[in-house]
Predict the structure.
Amino acid sequence: MVPYHICKYKESDRKQVLDLFSGGMEEHIPPPSTESWLLPIRCTFILLLFLWFIAGYPWRQYVVMSSHIDFADITKSYLSSQDSCFCLAECGGQVMEIMSAVTIKNPQLGRKQLKLSCMSVALEHQGKGIAKALIKTIFQFAQDQGCSEVVLDNTLLLYKSLVL
């Protein structure tokens, strides 16, 4: 297992965090298929490239939007108040994984809840149990905040990442 330690975000981590987030989202863009039975045999490379671009567009837009909102100032978005956190796992000065959470202001169920809002793992470090350590850190933060539940942001990406 790769040695790592969990720590809070520092402004010096910004570039690596943004690169890891962008790379993590790009993993979910489906690759162009050259063996698709749905496409006619005469389908050209340009058509496949166009379809690949269209399939990846929502992911790219999400990265751009997040870069201009949450990631524009990570310290302000996640560390300026007591009700949010931004943790990362690093090894040898390299950021391997990021995870953030915020307390939900007006939860529907009336119980204090923490929302897991951002998670990305470097491809070469997936499957090594690092996410479990970060999740434990987030759960401890939730407990310290008096939250009774940790909920997922409404994205398929986080659900897929945590279930698998």
Remarks:
- The mean pLDDT is 77.
- The beta strands are 5-8, 84-91, 94-103, 113-121, 149-152.
- Residues 45-68 form the longest helix (24 residues).
